[in-house]
Amino acid sequence: MHPFADSSARDSETAANSLHQLNFDNTFARLPRTFYSPQPPTPLFYPYLVSFNPAAAELIDLDRAEAARPDFAVHFSGNRLPQGAEPISMLYSGHQFGHYVPQLGDGRAILLGEVRNRAGELWDVQLKGAGLTPYSRQGDGRAVLRSTIREYLCSEAMHGLGIPTSRALCITGSDEEVYREQIETAAVLTRLAPSHVRFGSFEVFFHRGQHEEITKLADYVIARHFPSLAHAPDKYAVLLDEVTHRTARLMAQWKAVGFAHGVMNTDNMSILGIPLDYGPFGFMEAYDPVFVCNHSDHYGRSAFDQQPNIALGNLTRLAHALSPLVPEWEARAVLDGYAPAFYEHYIRLMGEKLGLREAGEAEVPLIASLLEDPGARMVAPALADAGLLHRVRSNGLPAGTSYRMHPLVRAYATELLADAGPGLAGSATGRLLASGWLELANRGEPGARLSVR
User: Within this chain, do residues 143 and 27 fall inside the same structural domain, yes or no?
Assistant: First the structure.
């Protein structure tokens, strides 16, 4: 089963494991020490369990009843290691806000190891906020409760939206004081991901001239995540192509749900096309293409409408790091496929949101202009709400049942039809009206998919 498949599809009859029965198989720790540093966690002062996620526990076959153990927080704060864990901190570098930083690494995260579940999947189990590491630089190695709650909620929201993401197993808290802009309390987030290898994992060895390590890491990624490529003559180019298409899909999914990530640096870009870190982030309410969620981003580099371009720039840096393995002409050909892949995913997603059975190039002008359409804003300020259709979708009734039109759609349609003026006819909203979407909504036909998926 794919690592991002719904855990409900798993065999519910299979008995879950206790904490001491977790099946650790630490493949990354078997790489040479140049890729990481062994690092035990720093004990957290009197830890307690803040929240536990049973759905994430199923990914590693952990019995949800284990969360009631008195020592559960002790294990998932780093105070006591689970049997089989081999704690390490991973080395990488990265381009941060466009500038190369020679060495970063896990400054406050410690990978306990990888747990293999009964389906054969490997899941990294990482403690974020588990103390100082050799890569902490000026940091204190800790996370605070506020930020761990935000990451916990966002990763699970992304999963609920069907967007590939890391997962949150639990949060452990403490009264230990941590100094940020003010005094806060410490916490540890236990994060699950299929891998924590990132673009910067390759960059650090390229810029050090350690090309042998690039080959070893690429072979490791292929063996663990793309085994069908192992004997392909152009396996490294195909690996780059796979990463490119996964990243394009992720950017399209973010754009379709109005999500902005505040730190799209190469050290936060996963080789598998999933978010690895939720620092500053935000979901738009009112549509704003220059929406910036990072208060320290004074120049808008990570603005909402810039994310697809930033991702392509980061892929270009990954291709540069892989240049000892992938010739420039081949890398360029791969990267040329990014934009078509992004738009294919994005048009399909937006077409689904608008209730279009098929969306292609002909619908691009409508989709591109709708959210910023002056006609729509003229008749209904609520149309600027980027989450409107998502709310309709999340509250929609099953197909095949009789029901009245959803209140949000009714309000939307009523205001449009009542206030429509001469300027509306040639607008994107007018073209949407002409497409019959609101006609369908007004009929309230049994089985009509007002949630437009």
Answer: yes
